Amino acid sequence: MQEVERSAPTVEAALEAALAELGVSEQEADIEIVQEPRSGLLGIGGQDAVVRVRTRSASGDAAADVDEQAEIAADFVEGLLDAIGVAGEVDINEADGVTYVEIWADDDPDALGLLIGKRGNTLESIQELVRIAVHRVTGERCTVLVDVEDYRKRRRAQVLHRARDAARRVQKSGRQEALDPMTAYERKLVHDAVAEMGGLETASEGEEPERRVVIRRGG
């Protein structure tokens, strides 16, 4: 069993780095959040997130019940909407094996657009807050995703389509290809999708928010 520990400004970014080093997908690993990210005063004294990831054994521990996580996440999101004065409906649904806490507009779709942000960055910040809330209650890594007006589901389909198209071009031409900048969650989608195709390797390059995945033939 292999194990690595990595740090980054967010849990997702730290997890991405650890999974890439081990060469496994999230489904093939046991994940422990050693430290949640903490913001310092005026940007001073903050702490990165730290995760410990090990390759999963046949008897890997089961995660906390996803229904419990979803209820905790939904309650947190409802409280967040009330706090910032955004009217919306919060539902829990499952799609493609993933449990989502979904936010839907009541009467102002533009207001919910603010919850998504450029390239989904605001949505990722909300997701990070939800992860912290779930982890504090359950002690387990949050597997529930927050979505706004199905943005994340649509974006997931687009990312997977582009990743597979690019991977096929690299397989055919042998020339490496860099994808557009993505969030840490989306980069993990690319890593997993390309790994399934075989004969290729991926690496994340650049600094946030311009960090992107590069696909190349395997050595």
Indicate the low-confidence ranges by residue numbers: none
The number of distinct structural domains comes to 3
How are strands sequenced across the largest beta sheet?
Answer: 1-3-2
Q: Indicate the CATH class of the largest domain.
A: Alpha Beta
Return Rg in Å: 18 Å
Which second-level CATH architecture of the largest domain applies? 2-Layer Sandwich
Strand content: 15-25%
Annotation keywords:
9 strands; three-stranded antiparallel beta sheet; 3 domains; GMP Synthetase, Chain A, domain 3; single chain; alpha+beta; 219 residues; globular; 6 helices; three-stranded mixed beta sheet
Tell me the layout of helices and strands:
Blueprint: E1 3-8, H1 11-22, E2 29-35, E3 49-55, H2 66-84, E4 88-95, E5 98-105, H3 109-116, H4 121-138, E6 145-148, H5 151-173, E7 177-178, H6 184-197, E8 200-205, E9 212-217
Parallel strand pairs: 5-6
Antiparallel strand pairs: 1-3, 2-3, 4-5, 7-9, 8-9
Architecture overview:
The protein is of the alpha+beta class and 219 residues long. It folds into three domains: 3-55, no CATH class; 66-149, 2-Layer Sandwich (GMP Synthetase, Chain A, domain 3); 154-217, 2-Layer Sandwich (Ribosomal Protein S8, Chain: A, domain 1), CATH 3.30.1370.50. Helix content is 43%, strand content 25%. The chain has helices spanning 11-22, 66-84, 109-116, 121-138, 151-173, 184-197; strands at residues 3-8, 29-35, 49-55, 88-95, 98-105, 145-148, 177-178, 200-205, 212-217. The strands form three sheets. A three-stranded antiparallel β-sheet has the order 1-3-2, covered by helices on one side. The radius of gyration is 18 Å and the shape is globular.
